[in-house]
Write a structure and sequence with these properties.
The protein has 406 residues and is mainly beta. The chain is built from 4 helices and 26 strands. The chain folds into 2 domains: 175 residues, no CATH class; 201 residues, Jelly Rolls (Sandwich), CATH 2.60.120.
């Protein structure tokens, strides 16, 4: 499987690529002990990206497993843990050690999403006492297991490559050189007609790969701004439209996350008069995120993470207050790819002018120093929908799009 990696250099560049089978052939410098020169010699790793999952740490390894592979990153440097806002001098240093083991499988049809080609990623976090406490403050994470750090088995020496501490300025410079590590760029094993002219997996909704909902109105997430007065902490550039037409695969990057932070990150709201229903029906309310790139220490979703309460909402016509809110039934999202949030309920009656709102929270529980982000893509695969009945004579938007490809 393709692996993207960025060496730590005095003059950094974009991702380099190798096959997971060749990871052990990469240049290697000894484990840092202090005083090393960061120059133009390769051998230290700054970041690794596989299927849109970007990871950093003190140490790195990639295991080749036939068609699959594993990315392993771990941090056992005492100075890193001291940067966490809740670190205490009395904490044993091993309380803050952690390792990510992330298993990647080839992109394949996802039966939960109507056969849409998607990632299939599972994760295990091995953590010390404090790390596990921090992660569990935000609740469970979909497709992620938690284990004590004492159970972590380090990979064989030949696979291990080391990271090295760099000043914040050089960390930012490395980040500024990276192109988007998009999960859709891991479709080399698929038939050529599944990929666009740039080699990216095509939007799946346009291929008719979704679970149609009869009598359902669908809106699409857009990067077009729609100001709202409901949530003052959301950056105004991340207050966006839910629109009746899909985006053209624009991408939008979250704000920066330092260790131990959570935020209300993205807000999507329908236009005035939409969905034009005073008594919202009993049924499924859904929001599918296309998380094109994800740092391994960040989670997100339409649910409460730390002190940030993401949710679905019925919001008043003037966008001044949420009338009723509800959260996704799924655990928080922690993998790149298509992630569907949903809840089935019967909202209270309101006014015909009430609008539909999707508010995404993000959190970073742990990690090395520096800023980390996640990125959303806005195509027909990024949508929100509810069980409202379309106006007489209007096409049911999901059915209409699917029929165009039959």
């Amino acid at each position: 499987m393709k692996v993207c990696y960025q060496p730590t250099l005095a003059t950094p560049g974009d991702w380099l690529e190798c096959d997971s089978a060749d990871w052990d052939q990469l240049d290697k410098r000894p484990k840092p002990v202090g005083g090393e020169d960061i120059n133009h010699a390769k051998g230290y790793i700054h970041r690794v990206c596989i299927q849109g999952m970007s990871g950093s740490g003190d140490h790195y390894a990639v295991k080749h497993l036939g068609d699959d592979c594993q990315l392993i990153t771990w941090t056992d440097d005492f100075e890193d843990e001291q940067e966490h806002p809740r670190w205490k001098p009395t904490d044993p240093k091993e309380w803050w050690y952690f390792a990510h083991v992330i298993h990647f499988r080839p992109l394949a049809p996802d039966p939960e999403l109507g056969g849409a080609i998607n990632t299939n990623i599972t994760r295990t976090l091995f953590g010390g006492k404090r790390i596990l406490e921090e992660w569990k403050l935000n609740g469970p994470v979909k497709n992620m297991d938690f284990q004590p750090f004492s159970k972590f088995v380090k990979p064989r020496t030949g696979l291990v490559r080391h990271g090295i501490w760099v000043p914040d300025e050089l960390d930012l410079l490395h980040g500024s050189k990276l192109s988007l590590g998009d999960w859709r760029n891991w479709g080399q094993h698929l038939e050529p007609n599944e990929l666009d002219e740039n080699g990216l997996l095509k939007p799946q909704h346009e291929q008719g790969r979704f679970a149609p909902k009869q009598g359902t109105i669908t809106y699409f997430q857009r990067d077009t701004d729609r100001a709202s007065g409901v949530h003052a902490t959301v950056d105004i550039t991340h207050e966006n439209e839910l629109n009746s037409s899909a985006g053209a695969s624009e991408t939008e990057v979250s704000s920066n996350y330092t260790v131990g932070t959570d935020k209300l990150e993205f807000l999507f709201t329908t236009a005035s008069g939409q969905p034009n229903d005073a008594d919202w029906p009993n049924g499924a309310y859904e929001c599918q995120l296309d998380i094109t790139n994800f740092d391994t220490n960040i989670t997100c979703g339409l649910l409460t993470l730390g002190g940030s309460a993401g949710h679905f909402a019925n919001v008043d016509s003037g966008l001044t207050t949420d009338n009723e809110t509800w959260t996704q039934t799924q655990a928080a999202f922690g993998t790149a790819g298509l992630n569907l949030a949903s809840r089935t309920l019967d909202p209270a009656s309101g006014a015909a002018g009430d609008r539909f709102e999707c508010l995404i929270a993000g959190a970073r529980s742990a990690g090395c120093h520096g800023n980390r982000t996640f990125t959303l893509r806005y195509s027909s695969d990024a949508f929100a929908r509810g069980p409202w009945t379309p106006a007489a004579g209007a096409p049911r938007q999901m059915d209409h799009l699917a029929m165009g490809h039959q």
